[in-house]
C-alpha cells in the first residue's frame, strides 16, 4: 500500500469543487489503496487554512478534520533539520513525508523539489490517482 501526505492546497481544492481529482482523492481517503499520514502540525495547518479560506461552516470543517484524524496514520515529527524548502512553512510537510516514507500529493510540486534528496516522490492528485489505477 502507498503512503501519502496530502498538502493543504489539495484539501482546500477538494472542498472548493467536487469535480476534480483533489475531490476524488479526498473521497477515497478511507480506501485500502493508500494510507494518509498525518501529524499534529499538519492537522493544525489544515484547520487554520480551511477555516480562513473555505466557505464551509465550521462544523463541517471540524467533521472533515475529525475524520482525517480518525483514519490517518499518526506520526510524530521531530524537526531534525530546517530549513530545506523555499517556503519554510512547508518544511514540516517534507519532514512528515520523510518520517512516513510517503509520496507528497500537492498542487505545488515545484515547491518540493528537495524531496528528491530523500528519494521521495511528489505528485499531483491526478498523477497519484493514475499511478494507483483510479483514473486513466
Would you give an account of this structure?
- By secondary structure, this protein is α/β, with parallel strands linked by helices.
- The protein has a single domain, classed as 5'-nuclease (Rossmann fold, 3-Layer(aba) Sandwich).
- Helices cover 45% and strands 12% of the residues.
- The protein has six helices and five strands; from the N terminus they run βααβααβαββα.
- It has helices spanning 8-16, 21-27, 40-53, 58-71, 91-100, 125-131, and strands at residues 2-6, 34-38, 73-74, 103-105, 122-123.
- Strands 3-2-1-4-5 form a five-stranded parallel β-sheet, with helices on both faces.
- The mean pLDDT is 92.
Give the CA-CA distance, first to last residue. 19 Å
Residues in β-strands, percent:
5-15%
Please indicate the count of domains.
Answer: 1
Shape: globular
The main β sheet shows up as:
5 strands, parallel
* The CATH architecture: 3-Layer(aba) Sandwich
CATH topology: Rossmann fold
Under CATH at level 1, the class stands as: Alpha Beta
What's the helix-strand series? EHHEHHEHEEH
How many distinct beta strands? 5
Amino acid at each position: 500500500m502507498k503512503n501519502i501526505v496530502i498538502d493543504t492546497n489539495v484539501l482546500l481544492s477538494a472542498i472548493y469543487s467536487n469535480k476534480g481529482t483533489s475531490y476524488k482523492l479526498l473521497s477515497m481517503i478511507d480506501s485500502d489503496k493508500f494510507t494518509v499520514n498525518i501529524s499534529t502540525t499538519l492537522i493544525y495547518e489544515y484547520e487554520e487554512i480551511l477555516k480562513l479560506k473555505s466557505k464551509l461552516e465550521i462544523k463541517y470543517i471540524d467533521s472533515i478534520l475529525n475524520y482525517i484524524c480518525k483514519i490517518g496514520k499518526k506520526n510524530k515529527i521531530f524537526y531534525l533539520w530546517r530549513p530545506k524548502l523555499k517556503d519554510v512553512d512547508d518544511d514540516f510537510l517534507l519532514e512528515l513525508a520523510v518520517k512516513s516514507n510517503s509520496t507528497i500529493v500537492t498542487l505545488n510540486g515545484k515547491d518540493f523539489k528537495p524531496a528528491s534528496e530523500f528519494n521521495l516522490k511528489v505528485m499531483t492528485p491526478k498523477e497519484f490517482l493514475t499511478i494507483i489505477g483510479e483514473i486513466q
